[in-house]
# Entry
Amino acid sequence: MKALILVGGFGTRLRPLTLSFPKPLVDFANKPMILHQIEALKEVGVTEVVLAINYRPEVMINFLKDFEDKLGITITCSQETEPLGTAGPLALAKDKLADGSGEPFFVLNSDVISEYPFAELIEFHKCHGGEATIMVTKVDEPSKYGVVVMEEATGRVERFVEKPKIFVGNKINAGIYLLNPSVLDRIELRPTSIEKEVFPQIAADQKLYAMVLPGFWMDVGQPRDYITGLRLYLDSLRKKSAARLATGAHVVGNVLVHESAKIGEGCLIGPDVAIGPGCVVEDGVRLSRCTVMRGVRIKKHACISNSIIGWHSTVGQWARIENMTILGEDVHVCDEVYSNGGVVLPHKEIKSSILKPEIVM
Amino acid sequence: MKALILVGGFGTRLRPLTLSVPKPLVDFGNKPMILHQIEALKEVGVTEVVLAINYQPEVMLNFLKDFESKLGIKITCSQETEPLGTAGPLALARDKLVDGSGDPFFVLNSDVISEYPFAELIEFHRAHGGEATIMVTKVDEPSKYGVVVMEEGTGKVERFVEKPKAFVGNKINAGIYLLNPSVLDRIELKPTSIEKEVFPRIAADEALFAMVLPGFWMDIGQPRDYITGLRLYLDSLRKKAPARLASGAHVLGNVLVHETAVIGEGCLIGPDVAVGPGCVVEAGVRLSRCTVMRGARVKQHSCVSSSIIGWHSTVGKWARVENMTILGEDVHVCDEIYSNGGVVLPHKEIKSSILKPEIVM
# Structure
């Protein structure tokens, strides 16, 4: 089977992290975001993944060669020369997706994390015999999104309502699809929206079905949701493979620590923390609701919450970092400095406190 | 003869421009900053220029191969693996700078623009017979800088005073040196400051001389000084090569327009404006005290002052852009938008006005 992952553009919402790497390669829970999706696809028998990109293909391609060997799956890029929207890239990659076998192919939005229940999705798709299946997720405030209105029993999609003013349902498009090759005949090679132009046509033919996504769902394309997403992801790990989480007197709640990371004495780590490869957390450090990326050093007695510490950065002794502070790559926060929501671009040194949220360039 | 240009690090002060290219390649007066220096060095017979860098060598090297062929001068890179300060890089590049001829070599700070009176500098250096010559420039507020105290008649340097509280002189280090090979014997390969450790020793041996830089001088490593620097540079062009400046009813003061740029009807351009290669300035546009970089399009009736418009950006119709607005590469300001000092990172669209100076990421 094949899969297309819509990687898209510049990842500006995840700056400053995306100033160092293209978004799919930004780490989430200690591995590149896109690797979570690729591994789950491999697990259900996908043999080739096509990445629809329009920015920095060289960086992606180098990195992916590495994955290809390690995972034993073919990864190729399909590069847009003009933005093609959410459906156009499928037309662009047509030759790679329709291999003559008649099998359906996956389409994923690269910012989405979930449990990726792809086996269940394949089963559901086969059962209903329609042309396309989209996964939907339940939200509390549907009026902010595009709502999918469906027949409860069968899941057959009736229509889509963009930002409904009155309540029509609470399921929204989760950005995970399983499509028959015939869907490609409905898409022209031009900027096209799959939600606004393609799916409504398939729904009108009564061939579009929706499956409610079991488990968690999050669009981690911006820092606040990235942090919430980590909590959901670690909750899910607790249920499915609790052995991967850290344990010990210094651990509170769900904490993921890479095997090559070091944690000192007297620390209190958690809840909802991920510590990446090669990190050094010195003695007496408090970490909660944060991500510490590859190669970071957190010095003694520092206190970090609700923040993201970028690759190879340093947080000084007794520093206090909180409230959505995002440190880019190679940022050095001096001893005893306070950061309240500082957003710091790569290769900077922070010598004085940041008292209110601001960008440091 | 040889020359070393101290290019240094990440160019963070010139962000967002340096998020797209390394600082020496940022355009100034319609050509890469470093090209101004390299051309002036070639003119006095320098055959090899060594760039001391510690960041993004690949980007630099590709670009420089291009210059090498066009200019007929050899350009190499000397890459620091740890920051070596302002003198360490000379030790690192020693083998390239000492060619056995006994000729002195130039050392330049890459952020400095001036008239580069290198022939006069060579003459002055030979005449005094000392070991090293530094160029100095007069400033109004010497207490903010390192002041060079020298004997008025001969230029012999007596001492350096860092940020003097009492008046000791008003000449500061201009970042342009001509050094005998013997100076290299005074520098170890470790982080070293040329102003604090090396020059004072040469001065103590009464072998250091200072020459006052004729003409203008500016350190253009940050946007405000970049804009002032353009004014000084264009003033200088007016005196030395006025044919290069634009003329016509639509031109006010000193304006440099690249031959491939297109200017529409009814515009008023200047003073102190540079319009780069391939730019399109539509009808009825007002530009003053600004730089418009390669490939940018400024749409009808807009008004831009005291700002920098980055490569391939667009300024919409009737837009007003002023007060140190810096647009990075590929930034699109929509029609009728106002930007008061917005600093916008690459690949962004500005759909609503920026009322006070802020970074848009």
